[in-house]
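Treating backbone geometry as a discrete language has practical consequences that deserve illustration. No coordinates are needed to read the tokens, only the vocabulary itself. For completeness, the protein is quoted in full, as a sequence line and a line of structure tokens:
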Amino acid sequence: MVAARRIDAAVDEVRYEFGFEDRFDRILRIDPNTLAATVEDGDFNSAASAITAKIVRVWRSSGEFPARVLFAS
């Protein structure tokens, strides 16, 4: 299970802490204009990809970036 919580929602960037089993040890950055995502440590792995996809799905359905999101496979 990958969990994320929003830590900042500026006009040009939305930031999330994320990690496995509520270990929020990585930072994800999403550009709200392009939905391009990066991670601070440079390792955009399957966990980063999965949680980004979930965040973007919620954003597309609600129009807002969620405060918290979980991805379980």
Q: What stands out?
A: The longest helix spans residues 46-62. The helical segments are 46-62.
